[in-house]
Design brief:
The chain has 120 residues and is mainly α. The chain contains four helices and two strands. It is rod-shaped and about 105 Å long.
Amino acid sequence: MTHDVRRSGSPAGAHVDADAERAVAGRGAKGPDELRQQIERTRHELGDTVEELAGKMDVKGRAKARADDLRDRAGAMTVQMRSSAAHAGQAGLRHRKPVIIAGAVVAAAVGAVMVRRHHC
């Protein structure tokens, strides 16, 4: 991007973006109504820009929004975990007999290991 350091009628040392100036000159207003529309559009864009910058500077507001987002995500994860736990509980009820048998086998194995260690 090229910058002209001075321009006639501008303060000494003022930087002017030559590309931006050419773009503005190319879309110049053809009449007073069009000029008013351009001014209104520019005001609207400037207002949006100022509002966006103010939002970025609002650290407290951004932190609160982030905390709210994290709280919502944690709530959703809690619901998901409860649903998974309920599903697992239902699956355990359906397969109760194999679970009891497996538990008994594990208990017998642990008991046998403990008896061997105790006798040694």
